[in-house]
């Protein structure tokens, strides 16, 4: 038994690899639970702190702008200080910020707390991508990232019923205190369990040799990075609209109360978890059957984008069918999201993975922040949800066409890709 335990703790052990994937999946679940606390509890909060649609959109903006900035800066920080230490700091920050919401007495305090939460959560996915790049071999990365990305669904599925129970028994402030406490407990688990890999995989030997010469600006100047940032900008404009506005849509348009949201709002998020896993599994399966990395990633991305326009039909169907259409959209969105966040580990060396994934997430969060303000403005000036669902139904298709036409092949970075950058430094 002692010998088996030692084997399990050896770097590179299959058991250890997937244990770390499970650990990160739990962190992502906590992050999505934390960011859903405000949207799900909004009806109860409004009894204490009156909020209109425009103010609600500003609360999402206050989360997403620092989230975007710290997504990029957090990715760079992780490349510098390492995954173990960096993820600890990130989780401590956002858990404290989440708990701070429970002390709010007015809109301004909520705005500040939301801003601090966004700052902390910005580094979560860059850290997750680094764990995948460090521990998971290329042919299993999309599956691993799909599992991690499914954590978004776990957190979002648990949020409506658990938050509903707390709201009905202890009040809305306790929602935030409990969520913060869960995050602090995870930090202890992480510090005890995780260690950096000594055999971290890289995209290519040539890229590893030249990566030290690449600055943050150099990475940003690469066209394939810019295309991925744009694609994430488009897709997450839709995703954050769904994520933050779905409970409010059910309250305002479909006549739901807290109990109804607790009973039914988890369904689309459950579908998103299935989509996240199956999207990654499909891409890995294609790789195992001999298809190229480029085809395996793009086929799964394209299939995910193809079904996103179904959300345009939501205003015209009964509520049961509306939830089914949301479920299809959430399924495809998270399939897409897990795949696109796998690409930095596919293409770039480990020393740049955090920076690239941070920039991609930055683009997504900026898209979500800007479209959230647009949504609040349109709803406040006579437009209905139907117009918004029509607009966001096109976003993934636009992002995929950009990847297809401008992103080049999905393959490990080679020396020729870096020559123009290196020459510009001479």
What does this structure look like?
The chain has 426 residues and is an all-alpha fold. Helices cover 80% and strands 0% of the residues. The protein has 20 helices and no strands. Helix 3 runs parallel beside helix 5 and helix 11 (223-252) runs antiparallel to helix 15 (319-340). The longest helix is centred in the first third of the chain and has 32 residues, at 14-45. It is globular and about 55 Å long.
Gross morphology is: globular
**Uncertain regions spanning at least 5 consecutive residues:** 1-12, 200-212
What's the architecture, going by CATH? Up-down Bundle
Name of the CATH first level = Mainly Alpha
Radius of gyration: 21 Å
Run of helices and strands: HHHHHHHHHHHHHHHHHHHH
Share of helix, binned: over 70%
| Beta-strand percent range | under 5%
Fill in the CATH topology.
Growth Hormone, Chain: A
Please summarize the sheet with the most strands. none
Number of separate helices: 20
CATH H-tier superfamily? MFS general substrate transporter like domains
Ends distance: 57 Å
Number of strands: 0
Strand-pairing-aware structural class: mainly alpha
Number of domains: 1
What is the mean predicted local confidence, pLDDT? 82
Provide key terms for this protein.
single chain, about 425 residues, mainly alpha, about 0% strand, globular, disordered N terminus
Summarize the structure.
The protein has 426 residues and is mainly α. It has helices at 2-8, 14-45, 53-81, 83-100, 107-121, 124-135, 141-170, 172-193, 205-211, 216-221, 223-252, 258-264, 266-288, 293-306, 319-340, 343-347, 350-379, 385-392, 395-406, 415-425. It has a single domain (12-425), classed as MFS general substrate transporter like domains (Growth Hormone, Chain: A, Up-down Bundle).
């Amino acid at each position: 038994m002692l010998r088996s335990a030692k084997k399990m703790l050896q770097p590179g052990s299959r058991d250890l690899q997937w244990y770390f994937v499970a650990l990160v999946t739990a962190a992502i679940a906590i992050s999505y639970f934390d960011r859903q606390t405000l949207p799900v509890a909004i009806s109860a909060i409004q009894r204490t702190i009156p909020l209109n649609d425009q103010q609600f959109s500003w609360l999402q903006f206050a989360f997403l702008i620092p989230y975007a900035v710290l997504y990029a800066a957090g990715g760079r920080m992780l490349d510098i200080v390492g995954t173990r230490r960096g993820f600890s700091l990130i989780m401590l920050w956002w858990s404290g910020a989440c708990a701070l919401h429970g002390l709010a007495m007015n809109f301004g305090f909520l705005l500040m707390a939301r801003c601090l939460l966004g700052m902390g959560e910005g580094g979560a996915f860059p850290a997750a991508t680094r764990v995948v790049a460090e521990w998971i071999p290329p042919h299993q990365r999309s599956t691993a990232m799909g599992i991690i990305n499914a954590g978004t669904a776990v957190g979002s599925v648990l949020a409506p019923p658990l938050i509903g129970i707390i709201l009905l028994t202890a009040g809305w402030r306790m929602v935030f205190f409990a969520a913060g406490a869960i995050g602090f407990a995870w930090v202890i688990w992480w510090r005890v369990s995780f260690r950096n890999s000594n055999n971290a995989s890289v995209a290519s030997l040539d890229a590893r040799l030249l990566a030290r010469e690449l600055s943050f600006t150099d990475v940003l100047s690469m066209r394939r990075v810019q295309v991925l940032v744009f694609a994430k900008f488009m897709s997450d404009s839709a995703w954050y609209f769904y994520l933050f506005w779905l409970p409010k849509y059910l309250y305002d348009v479909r006549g739901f109360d807290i109990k109804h949201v607790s009973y039914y709002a988890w369904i689309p998020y459950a579908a998103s978890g299935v989509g996240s896993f199956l999207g990654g599994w499909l891409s890995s399966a294609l790789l195992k059957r001999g298809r190229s990395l480029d085809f395996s990633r793009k086929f799964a991305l394209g299939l995910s984008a193809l079904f996103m326009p179904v959300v345009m039909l939501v205003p015209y169907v009964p509520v049961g069918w509306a939830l089914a259409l949301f479920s299809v959209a959430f399924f495809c969105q998270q399939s897409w999201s897990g795949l696109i966040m796998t690409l930095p580990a596919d293409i770039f060396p480990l020393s740049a993975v955090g920076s690239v994934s941070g920039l991609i997430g930055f683009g997504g969060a900026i898209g979500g922040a800007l479209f959230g303000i647009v949504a609040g403005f349109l709803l406040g000036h006579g437009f209905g949800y139907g117009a918004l669902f029509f607009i966001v139904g096109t976003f993934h298709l636009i992002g995929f066409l950009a990847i297809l036409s401008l992103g080049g092949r999905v393959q490990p970075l080679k020396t020729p890709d870096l020559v123009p950058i290196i020459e510009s430094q001479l």
